[in-house]
What we know:
The structure is a single chain. The chain is an alpha+beta fold. The protein contains nine helices and 16 strands. A hairpin with a 2-residue loop joins strand 15 (about 320-325) and strand 16 (about 330).
Amino acid sequence: MTGADGVDNGAMTTASSPSDHAAAAPAAPEAAVPSAAPAPGTTTSSDAPVASAAPVLLLVPGIIGPSALGAGEEPIVLADGTAPQLRVTDLGVTRGEGAFETIGVFDGRIMALAPHLERLQRSATMMELPELDLDVLAQAVRRAVDEHADVPELLVRIFVSSGPEGGAPGTARLTAWIHAKAAPDYSGERAGIRVVALDRGIPSTAPQTSPWLLAGAKTMSYAINMAMIREAERRDAQDALFVSSDGYALEGPTSTLLVRRGDTFTTTPASAGVLPGTSLGSVVAGLRAGGLDCTEELLTPAEVAASDGAWLLSSGRLAAPITHLDGIALPVDMELSRRFCDLIAGRAQA
């Protein structure tokens, strides 16, 4: 139930009325998305709207296709991000029942859009939500980038909740929205982070024995993830590493684990209940292009601490090298870390 975005996920206020790791081969980044309008502050004779530097909010009533739309209703609607847009009875609020994704956009390049949408559908399927219209979502993501002013790093979040409480069986209408805003400054984390290992409380076999725990789904129920980050901070660390109850390192609360041992790079298998990392695919492709071996294997925290380097990978923070795990210093290769960041951000080819 974790996500590899490395960012706070709040996007909307509530109101009483409506107006929103497997080492797989990566998808190529989206082509650069041109600005839909001149930069703010410039003059133009055109009547075209000027892209906004403020966060952009889009509602997506067409999340499950045209059949869900009312008469004359558009599938994608630009909304006021400062006004209430979500019912207080929405199950995303009352139960945390929903899925989300965070997509990095670097210099206009939308990274790994298809893998993110496929992972969103995977999470929705695990939660028994209806089939999503991924084409509409792709259009909405591109529009959110167009509507936002050009910035070097942008985060686009997609949220899909189960909708308002009380819907009759077969008539449920999902609530979906997209929120785009400039990314925070992650330069400190990209230079290195201190990490502590914390017990996640479930075994690495949970996906097979207890699928109702939704291990490996990126859900809106993020209270545990945030609590673990707060606990890490209480222990003078900046992030946490989930550990299964049978003793294996899994992933970070918002990130994917990558470990170096010699010339071999290892990540946690998705079968252990971790979120399949979209950022990981870009890094693995780059490593394999350089002739290096990439494997999936369960490692203990002690094995990670004794490794030749480890990183937490995510769509926003990119590659954060682990400088210490439970107080034990790890080797840090900053040149390799920068290479990983460039691969995830689409600034370098595999």
